User: Fold this.
Amino acid sequence: MILCDYCGKPAKLVDSAIVYEGRSYGPIWYCKECQAWVGCHPGTKEPLGRLANAELRRMKRIAHAVFDPLWRGKSHYTRRMAYQWLAEEMGLPEEETHVGMFDIEQCQKCIDICKKASRRKNT
Ligand SMILES: [Zn+2]
Assistant:
């Protein structure tokens, strides 16, 4: 059973068309009261991480926007290496270091770290 991270009640497995204005991207775990949801690993009912509400979704978008350019389009620096670096910077085990698994505070920390790193590279 998947519990909502905000109200603690069981989340429901529904089709993502509910939250994406009729377009389906597969099943999601969904809490109506909190307007929180999380997608599933392809072809499974395994959630990708914790349920995210509107604020956390916003923070994750920002975290991706600052983190992804650090590795994307670079041949010598892979996504995996970028996550290894981030894990070290954040003091987290590598397997817990994924934007999809971050809470608000971790998103903020990730954003700060990545901003600092990209400033360093540009100067
Ligand atoms: Zn809830």
About this structure: The beta strands are 12-15, 27-31, 36-39. The chain has two domains: 1-52, 54-122. The chain has a mean pLDDT of 93.
